[in-house]
Amino acid sequence: MKICVPATSANLGPGFDSCGVALSSYLTIEIIEEDTKWTVDHELGDAIPHDEQNLLIQTAQQVAPGLKPQHLKMTSSIPIARGLGSSSSIIVAGIELANRLENLNLTERQKIEIATSIEGHPDNCAPAICGDFVVASYFFNQNKPTIHYVKHYFPECQIIAYIPHSQVLTKESRSVLPETLSFEEAVKASSIANVMIAAVLNGDLRLAGKMMEQDRWHEAYRQEFVPHLATIREIVKRNEGYAAFLSGAGPTVLILTSEEKSDLITFELEQMEGSAQIEQLSVDREGVQVF
Ligand SMILES: Nc1ncnc2c1ncn2[C@@H]1O[C@H](COP(=O)(O)OP(=O)(O)OP(=O)(O)O)[C@@H](O)[C@H]1O
Ligand SMILES: N[C@@H](CCO)C(=O)O
């Protein structure tokens, strides 16, 4: 059995902690055999545990405490701590691992609820589970966690990810956010997000892109982690791309463009100073899959 989970890009500018899109880069978990202890074979570096300390196993055990240990193989093309949902991908894989090994028959909603309670916000894990574009809300109502979510088709476009080689942990990137915003500022920020979402639903990426670049919730506070964002925005604007915005907590910047502008924008990104990997991606429409 193989579990395959897509990368995700959260926020899309003003959809902070709420909107996300699944992308064509994947984490794959393969069950090799039942064993006497948990082992995770991977080549993702020394910081990622090979034993039951791995977040994959921790999550699976949280969902199904009596799980029998397995020998697993993990491969991933989702870079860690770059803003492409690596932590959500592993949490979603852990939930699916427990689901399949214990025949729990978890529904899509139950998986989203579990993943969100671990991750703290639904904008990466919901699209990792559902695929495509997901808008979600998560709040506590009389101490009860409440989730609402809607999956919708994301318009066809070219997606370019500018992925710096340096890592930024979500925790670190959230620590610079303000604790409060004024009522006036919150109304502005929310109206921009509303138009962004409505434009995506209408298939109007030109308008959606304008709104994606007008975020007022988080990007301004995170500038220290993304000194490259301003230059990328100039390149995208000059070449009439749709938008460039911080992917999740950064430092990756996601660029949306039409097919005809994609090669030129990619070429200009490659000429930029600094070390980054540039990948052309597409929208994953399926979410987590088991083969
Ligand atoms: N394949 C993996 N196996 C085990 N743990 C992982 C794996 N991938 C990510 N993690 C854990 O998730 C952490 C990174 O999560 P973090 O939320 O900081 O970044 P991200 O999910 O890549 O970015 P973002 O949430 O902004 O999209 C890693 O430090 C590690 O603890
Ligand atoms: N909405 C989250 C996504 C990263 O986990 C953030 O921007 O901090």
TrEMBL record:
GO terms for molecular function: ATP binding; homoserine kinase activity. Pfam families: GHMP_kinases_C, GHMP_kinases_N. It is found in: Cytoplasm. Residues 54-131 form the GHMP kinase N-terminal domain. Keywords: Amino-acid biosynthesis, ATP-binding, Cytoplasm, Kinase, Nucleotide-binding, Threonine biosynthesis, Transferase. It catalyses: L-homoserine + ATP = O-phospho-L-homoserine + ADP + H(+). SUPFAM superfamilies: GHMP Kinase, C-terminal domain, Ribosomal protein S5 domain 2-like. Residues 196-266 form the GHMP kinase C-terminal domain. GO terms for cellular component: cytoplasm. Pathway: Amino-acid biosynthesis; L-threonine biosynthesis; L-threonine from L-aspartate: step 4/5. ATP binds at P79, I80, A81, R82, G83, L84, G85, S86, S87, S88, S89. The keyword Nucleotidyltransferase does not apply. InterPro entries: GHMP_kinase_C_dom, GHMP_kinase_C_sf, GHMP_kinase_N_dom, GHMP_knse_ATP-bd_CS, Homoserine_kinase, Ribosomal_Su5_D2-typ_SF, Ribsml_uS5_D2-typ_fold_subgr. GO terms for biological process: threonine biosynthetic process. PANTHER family: HOMOSERINE KINASE, HOMOSERINE/4-DIPHOSPHOCYTIDYL-2-C-METHYL-D-ERYTHRITOL KINASE. HAMAP family: Homoser_kinase (MF_00384). Catalyzes the ATP-dependent phosphorylation of L-homoserine to L-homoserine phosphate. Belongs to the GHMP kinase family. Homoserine kinase subfamily. This is Homoserine kinase. It comes from Tetragenococcus koreensis. The gene is thrB.
